[in-house]
Amino acid sequence: MYDITNILEPKTINEALEMLSNNPRLKIIAGGTDVLIKLHHGAMEAVELLSIRKIKGLDEIALMEDGTISIGAMANFSEIFRNDTVNQYIPVLAEAAVSMGSPQIRNMATIGGNVCNGAVSADSAPALFALNAILKLESTTGARMVPIEQFYSGPGKVKIESGEILTNFLINKEEYEETTGNYIKFSNRKALDISMLGVAVVCNSNWQRFNDLRIAIGVAGPTPIRCKEAEAYARGKDITEKTIEEIGLYAVKSSHARDSWRGSKSYREHLIEVLTQRAIKEAVKRAGGSKNE
To answer: What domains, with CATH codes, occur in the chain?
Structure first.
């Protein structure tokens, strides 16, 4: 059923990095919800696995002294959406986490595996993009910090180098302080389906105008994206119905939507416009404000 020739289970990150350095062919497995499916369908053959599940500390979620939120790559989606720090400071990520599959999947799937799989439908990706998350990648030669926007290189492809393990996601205080957010997932079915579109919004406003607005979209193109044109247009604008409508249109321009078996380009563009507007309105509402007519 699974063409696995060997499984290594290190107990420390240093041990794991040494094993990976000695055998670059090892395939890292976290929760296994993506890797095991690929193995089941024959997408991988005669694979050697390096399981990082037993490494203590890789699932920790912590608020550091300088206000940075650190999320271990092995934190599963159930742990994320139930975590007090996540819900208090970055609830947009909690919303993304709870939208992920079934309870059984959320108990196994990890945020690190979700991102490293490189799928454009990864539910965590838009929220992490909107939060300007930084990835900490470790190897035997040291650590490398990579902004998440620079991590994706194409469908199913990420810029993780040979010998590296993703250990943490870091979200700096200035990225979430005095912000509200909203994540909306749209799929063909109401339950347990892969996302047709995911929109995450992080907003800093003074209830009258947008001081800062970040919009990230998943499944619109070959990688998750930030809608930079829409963000630039919104900055400093009064919060009105007209402004929010225009932001939605700019988001469509930024998205470069495409046709796929899950939906046509025109339908995706409609969803981007409508869901972006809806997410912004909810974020403004959560800030205690309302749009001006």
So the answer is: 4-51 (3.30.43), 61-175 (3.30.465.10), 178-286 (3.30.390.50)
